[in-house]
Amino acid sequence: xxxxATRARFPWGLTIACALAFxxxxxxxxxxxQRMQWKQGLIAQAETxxxxxxxxxxxxxxxADPEFSRVALICPGLASAPFVELQxxxxxxxxxxxxxxxxxxxxxxxxxxxxGFVADTISARPPVAVSDEPVQLVAEVRATPAPxxxxxxxxxxxxxxxxxxxxxxxxxxxxxxAPWTLFALTSSNPEWQALRPSAPPAAFSNxxxxxxxxxxxxxxxxxxxxxxxxxRKPSLRPPRSANETPGKKEKP
Length: 252
What we know:
It is a single chain. This protein is of the alpha/beta class. The chain folds into 2 domains: 1-55 and 204-237; 69-184, no CATH class. The chain is built from 5 helices and 7 strands. It has helices at 2-9, 12-50, 57-61, 164-170, 208-232; strands spanning 70-74, 84-90, 93-102, 110-119, 136-143, 158-159, 177-184. It has a 7-stranded mixed sheet with strand order 1-5-7-4-3-2-6. It starts with a helix and ends in a 20-residue tail after the last helix.
């Protein structure tokens, strides 16, 4: 009878729910720790690459992970190449980034070049014409993830998210497109000052330690909440019988 009453009164539902929530909170904390370590590695990689001199395309694109590397290459006709416009913001100013294809990057695939930022206050654009005039360029290599599911669809030559495959298609590129974007650090059109070549900042925010501490703190708070509830529940002992007197034993 004692065992049955104890089982009946023990909060199994609450215990299982708290255990599942505790496991979830700890898993989220561990995930944030892993993200923190990944971000630290990414920051170290970017800082190391920033201090290196530009390399030849064959060396850069032959690396296992060329991201953040700087490459010196020649793109024939880039100054007057066709381009698509990517909606963007730079230093709080709205505008677009002009993106063209580099036909001879010393790589087996066509690589898209982000030629730079043009503010919305500038309506002019570089001329577009067929040309083989070589353009020497120094650029930074960045991986280009696929656009998210909430990204707006492009409108003609205007894009609202980076999509190398779709951009290459609009630019009339045949063959495979590299998963990298070359962010120009030198101008393809130095005579046109409105075009501002730049790569996204390599300084990444790393707030994952704070997020991890938050999840682990919530897990500890949940444990405290569970223990407090157990202490406030009535005794798990079965109730005394009516003929039992406290402090006295029944006579045989």
